[in-house]
Structure formats: structure tokens, C-alpha cells
Structures
1.
Amino acid sequence: MSKNIRFVQGNEACVEGAIYAGIDFFAGYPITPSTEIAELLSARLPEKGGKFIQMEDEIASMCAIIGASLTGKKVMTATSGPGFSLKQEAIGYACMAEIPCVIANVQRGGPSTGNPTHVSQGDINQARWGTHGDHAIIALTASNHQDVFTMTVDAFNMAETYRTPVVLLFDEAVGHMREKLIIPEQGELEIVDRLRTSLGKGVDYHPYLPREDGRLPMSDFGGEHRYNVTGLFHDMWGFPSNNPSVVNELLKHLVDKIENNVHAITRYKEHFMEGAEYVLISYGSSARSAIHLAKSRRAKGEKIGVLELQSIWPFPTELVREKCEHAKAILVVEMNMGQVTAQVKASVRKPNRVFLANRIDGHLITPSDIKKLLRVIQGRGV
């Protein structure tokens, strides 16, 4: 059987992953450097019977996919920095109302308008804490197009499994560069479909009553069951409540359904990690430079390895601690002022051995940039 091989941009790999996962509906607003996702889906979605709509702004786009998801559709939107900021209130609504949806954020320089056409990884903490209040979130990323495809499929699967928004945190370099993508045959990757209630029409339906396995069956809004959807704290029928026990139980559920499944959600790759004395932790396009450096230095006998994170939130604390337990030093390679570095320092037993190798000027961090810091650390005898 011949393979379906493409030469594509990262944004196009995201589109192919969404189609593979069964996307039905996309609403968005053009914004650099994510625009190709909307452009391509505007053509591809109607071909498979799906719906595409360009909304008047990013706020409306997020609200549109929330509405479409409630009616039973697999949904997605795509944006970049300023647009991601505008979506935050509706993302919080989706968290509270437990509405499955996928948000692709192809990161660019910020804050504000920043560097629209340049690379950055500055939205890591915003993905976690951008919307107010206690909540949990899932955020995935990738450094190459094959993994962009896979992480996009995983994002849809996780959104449906945990009834939650899932953020795809790509970056401009990955989004715009081109490389080979092999599209798997249908059935090669698992696809999680919407868990719908088995209750028939006229039977009392509790939209927020979880099963023993923790999943909440949904009923397509406007279909056989009438139920309430609100951003307020609510009971199992969906009606607002300020009862302390109801509020406490719901808030714990919203957090625990994700934080208690860190092992199931965690995605990562190891490169040259066997016996590594120096561990580079990285993600997105930065990981490509880290892997290149580790490969070249390993060839010269230096024990350098790379732990590539593909799930950023919930942060894989135990994984990082375990993989870095015996490292002399840990270098976090990222294009921001240390957003993942802070998480790594909080995870390991010797945070003083954690160093930041970064760039914040809108340009890719290079193997040479990393090597300079590594040489300084090794010179200190660390």
C-alpha cells in the first residue's frame, strides 16, 4: 500500500490532523502566523460536509465553536497572541460548562501586537492561567510536522474524553516551515468520538453527573433533552448554585479530572538520554536546536540528552524529576524569559542546577546559543 506523503507547512499538518480526527466545524479570524489553518480549512471542511465560518473577531470565533460543540460537533479555532488573549473569557466558560473544543495558538512575539511575523514561545503561562479562577487545562505542543499531526489528533481526543478545552501551543517557526508529513491510514491512530447519553427522550437527563469512570455523557443541545448551560457554578442539572458543597464539589471535579490524569495526558520524547550527565529540556521549534546540539556533542563523547516535552499542561512534574534525577545540570531551552524553566525548578530536587538557555528577540535559539551556556556551566564544574 502506497503511503500518503506530503510536503507541507506545520499549519497544514495541523489541518490534516484535525480532518483525520473528525473535525466538523471551524470558526476563526485571520491572524499571523496562524492564518493558513483557517485558509486551508475554509476549502477542506466543506469537501467533507463540515462547516467553516469566518467570524468578526476572535471573541465571536471562540463563542461560535462553543455553540457548535454543544450541538454535538467536533470543533476547533486557530489564532495567535492577541487573538488568544481575546478568547480567554470564553475559554473559561468552556472550562466551567465542560464543553469540548480545540484552540490552536501559533505563537508569535508579544506582548500586545509584538512581532507578528517572528517566532516566540511566550504564551506558555497564558495557556495555563489566561482565564481567571481556579481551573485546569490541557496544552500540547510539537517540534516537527509529524508530531504536529499527532498532537492535533490527541487534542481532539482529549477534548472529547475530558470534556474540556485543549490548547495546541505551536510556534511560528514550526507553523511556517515545510517538511515531510506521512498521513496515517484511517484506523492507525485512535479516534475518540463524543460520548453521548444513552437516555431516551423524556427521561430525566443530568448533564453534569459523571459516570464511575469520570466521563460525562453529553446530549446534543437542541435535541432530545432540555438542559441548562451556564458559566456560573451549577448543580448536576446545570442550574446555578452558590451552595458551598456544590461549589466545592464542582471545582474539585474540574481540576481533578485533568490533574489526576497527568500520566494519561503526558506526551514526551527522549533523545540521547541514556546516561546523560547534562539534560536539555525543550519543546516546539527550540527542541530542534537542542536535539541537533545533543547529537553533535554525543558524537564527540559528551553525555548530553534531550527531554522533549509535548504536553506542557498539566505539567509532567514527576516525569521531569525522574528523568533529571542524576543529571549534573539541566538546561531549559525555550524562547521566553523562563516560563517552563520555573516549572522545572519547582519539579527537581536541586533547582540550583537548572539553567535557562533562551532567546527573546524573535529569532530562533540556535545550537550555538545553547553550546555557549553549556560551556560556561561545564567550566564551573557543574
Note: The domain at 269-377 is CATH 3.40.50.920 (Rossmann fold).
2.
Amino acid sequence: MNRNANTDMSGLAPLTGFAQIIEASVLARAQRGDMRAFATLYARFGQPCYGLALRLTGNTAQAEDLVQEVFLKLIETIRSYRGDAPFGAWLKRMTANAAIDQLRRNKRFVDADPEAMFAAADAIEANPAQKLDAAALLQRLPTRARAIVVLHELEGYTHTEIARLFGQSESYSKSILARGLQRLHASVAESQAET
């Protein structure tokens, strides 16, 4: 069977997002500063980076800026990529870190008190059409809660990894995740009751 490098082990489903396999020769060229190799990396991973940045920040302009920031940083740091983890996983972590750093710079993580965070989010009203849209539901969560839900539930980060990213304890991550999921479930139930 002739399988291309970007298919899963069964040879059926193409790998997408950060799971794509990048050829060693492209990485080697990028590590030597070849801009065509960086263009290849951008073509393959620009959209997954944007999607993650958008889910974490909830803002298209910030997500676009983050992708540019991540790829500029990639040019500077790719020489440090040792291949211990798949390239996509390495880039995913770089993107998540950049998003969290940006949210910190924008003072959107200032409210460390979970009660205050969720109380402020309660004040946000959504129209009925938005209530069942996943992205709109995530937008109704406080910034930190949204980031933790996305990282844990969608991106597969562990509570230990999230705790390190946020400089908090694992129990804090678990608490925010539980409350965020509870809020999402309540929003869905409320929307279904209205229809």
C-alpha cells in the first residue's frame, strides 16, 4: 500500500492540524534558515495555530497577531527543536504559551478569584441563536476558564501541564475546568428549554 506521510496508521484518514507529519528535510532546511522551508511550515501549520489561538483568545485580531508572533518566534527558535516530540506538538505548545502570554499582557487574567471571574461572565447576555453555537458558548466563559476548557477538553493538556502554564495548582485547574464545564452544560440546558 502506498501511504503518504500525512495519513494515519490505517492509511485511510489524512492527518490534519498539529498531527501532520513534516518531512525531516524540511525541518533541517528550516533549521538552516531556509525561508522556503518556513513557508512550507506556515502553509501546513498556520491554520491549526490560528484555530488554537482563536479558541484561547476568543478574538480574531488577537489570533491573527499570535500566529504572526509564533511564526516569527519559530524562525528564531527552530534551531532548538531537537525532535524529542513531534514538530506539531512542539508548535502547539509554543502557540498555547504565546496565547497565554498575550492574555496576561492584556491583563485578561488579572481576576484570579474564580467567584469574581464567573460572576462577571454571568453579566454577558447572549441571544438565543448564539446559545447553542460552540464558539459562542465558549465566549460566554471568563477568559481564563475558556483557556483552561479549551486546553484540557479540546487540546488534551493535563491538569499538571495547565497548572504550569498558568502558574497555579492542579486543583485550581480542576476547579476552573469543572465550573467552566458546568457553566457550558447549564447554558445548553437553558437554550434547549427555551426552544
Note: The chain has nine helices and no strands.
3.
Amino acid sequence: MLDILRFTPSEISILALSLKIALFCVVLILVPAVLVAWVLARKSFFGKSLLDSLVHLPLVLPPVVPGFLLLLLLGNQGLIGKYLHNIFGFSLAFTWIGAVVASAVMAFPLMVRSARLAISQVDKGLEIAAQSLGAHPLKVFFTITLPLSMPGIITGLILAFSRSLGEFGATITFVGNIENETRTLPLAIYTYTQIPDGDLPALRLVILSMALALGALMISDRLERKANQSIGRHHD
């Protein structure tokens, strides 16, 4: 029984790599996701439905499809990737940075959905009142909209972080399954299930993945309840 909880240095390295990729993922998507969420929550324009659909497309596509499209676009022979590789000597495909990009593509819709809901719940009257008193729209955003929607944004970050930890299809398609480079928790679990005597390490990583996911969901739920209570007090 104790063997289940005895992690090897290799498994600890896999966890560290997964956490690093997930952390860089949420840093990468934070600003663009909040901006897109604000646009979708506050603006009306031609093509809004199309933008909304494109943002959420990764949620309904098979994960290997975004991964394949990333390979066509950012691979060493891709439309953009070949110039990065030939001119700057920089490669995204089959690197941990590419894994960050793949995770970001898949986590972006979750971040946008959460931030959009939070922003839409902010009372527009407060924003209008501030602007009528001469506040610049940018100041209104940073002093009213952003602080009041922060619990929802943090919830979105947690969900995006968790989604990154569980990302498999787009990652393995775009960056492969390279030990100490792109082999994250789900890829390692898959690898262990394909080799003899791999059941025990696979089980350890499954338990670890479930614990991380459960913890993230509990934190997210707690923040959401706090946000709803705060909104309720504000309306009262």
C-alpha cells in the first residue's frame, strides 16, 4: 500500500514539468482572455457570434485537431514555424514551450467563459456613473470592472491551470511524448500503461492527478460562492 505513495525521482520530475507548463499556460492566456471576455461581455458588434464560436471551438473539437493545426502553423515546417526556425533558430514543436502553447489553446475558452460571466455580473451602473464623473474608460476598467470581477477571473485561472494539467490530445500531437521535455502527467500515465510493470506508477500518477483536479475544483467552487455572496451583498 505504501508503494502507491512512494514517488520516484522520475515521477516527481514529471509532476514538476506539468506544474511548470500549467503555470506558464495561465500566465500566457491571462491578459488576452480577460480582454476577449470584456469585449464579449460589454460590446456589441458585427461578427460577435463568430468570435464567440471561434473562442469556444477547442471545447467541442477533438483535441488532436487543434494539435494538428498548431503543427501546421507552428511546426518547424509550418506556415509561421518555419520562419521562426530558419531565421531565429527557435522551435515550438516538440519542446516544453510548445506544450505551453498547446495547453493555452485548450484552456483559453475556459478562462474566457469564467471571466466573461464575472464581468457581465458587474453592475453597469457603477461604470456609467464613474464615466459620467469624468473617469477615463481605462480607469473605470482597472478600478471598478476588474476588481469586482476578480473572483471569477481567479476561478477561470484555476480552471485553466487544471485543464492544462490534464491536456493530452493537442499536446501529444504538437509536441510529442518526450521524456523530460514534453511528458506531462497524462502523457506519462499513457506511457506507463503501455509498458510491462507500469500499472503501479500509472496508478500513482492517476491518484496524484485526481488529487490536484479535486483540489482545484474545490478552490474554484469556494471562490465562486464567495463571489456570488459579494454580488448579493452589493445588490442589497
Note: The chain is about 75% helix and 0% strand.
4.
Amino acid sequence: MRILIVEDDKDLNRQLADALGEQGYVTDRAYDGEEGHFLGDTEPYDAVILDIGLPEMDGVTVLEKWRANQRLMPVLILTARDRWSDKVAGIDAGADDYVTKPFHVEEVMARIRALIRRASGHASSEMVCGPVRLDTKASKASVDGSTLKLTSHEYRLLSYLMHHMGKVVSRTELVEHMYDQDFDRDSNTIEVFVGRLRKKIGVELIETVRGLGYRMTPPEDDKSGDPG
């Protein structure tokens, strides 16, 4: 999953990026509204953390421009505690949720996870595909109860496929959501990661759809994407 952080406080921006990175997310960072608007308008993100009080272009304007241009990624806005009007303006502009400053980073992480789950149609923090279980809160995966030892790229691949279970995901889409904007992207490496992941899972859950990409589907007798 790929997240955009638009926050002019460089320390806070780095703190959020570090926390997201520890949970397996790829992050791009912007420090003013114009840069943030450009990235959000031209790059595919699974969610955005957007500060309202930005230089160059305020966060509400950035968000209004995104929504006017049909950029529909979930957006979590950051607002000052004493500015309730910012919360109203942000929600009216198309924000999906908000957090007031100062905040605990853990709360932001939980809200981002929830926004991404809802956007992909999942209600629980745990996702199940046959014997494979993905715990998005702990950033861990297991097969039949045994923890999988995954590299960061393998985890990102598994997470994206499970968030989009049953849908065909192209190699290009995987590359766009697994790597940040500065990474030297090569779609051929996706085949390598898929092969490694298949071996570690040990079951045939990742289907190659010739000419289109990959699709992760549960076995015929287990079509539920969430536990329970």
C-alpha cells in the first residue's frame, strides 16, 4: 500500500513516514500544498494524510481540487485542536476522516488502516484467503497458523492482493503501489516476488491471468474475504 503524506512540519512528516514504513507501507512525502496537490493528482495512492494548514496552497483547496478531478483515494486530514471550522470545511471538501493535533501516531495508523480496509470492502483488520491470514494491525501473515517470514516487498505484494481479493491486478498497478516515486521501477521483478510468495504460501491462491496480471482468490469452499 502506498501513502502520501502532505505535512509542512518536517519532523512530524518524518515521524509519520517512519511509523507507516514500520507497518509495511510505502510513503511519498510533500511539504506544501502545491507539491502535495501535484503528487495526489498524478500518482496512485491508497490513502493520503493531509494537513489543513499548508503553505502555498491550503489543505482544503488541495482536497477540493482532487475531488473535482475525480481523485477518490481516502483522505485523512490533520487539523488544529481549536479549529473546529477546519474539520467541517475538510469533511465538506471530501475528507473521509480527521485527527486533531496533537495526536498519538498510533491513532493515525489505526485510522489509515480503517480507511484502506473500507475502500477495498473489508470490515476487519484481519483478512483471510483459504489458509492464509493477513493481520494488517500487526503487519504479519500466516498460513494455517504458522507465521510467514516475508521480505518487505513480499508483504506489500501479499497485502495488496488480499486487499483486492477476487480482482485482477496488473503488474503496472502492483509496481505503482509497492514502490515510492523515487524507486527504479521494473515490472519484471513482480514475477520474481510472486514466485517467491507462492512458494512460501504453499497453496495455489495466486492466479496468473495471462496478459492482464494476477488475481488472489480463496478456494472454492471458502469464498469469504474476512474471518467469521
Note: The first strand starts at residue 2 and ends at 6.
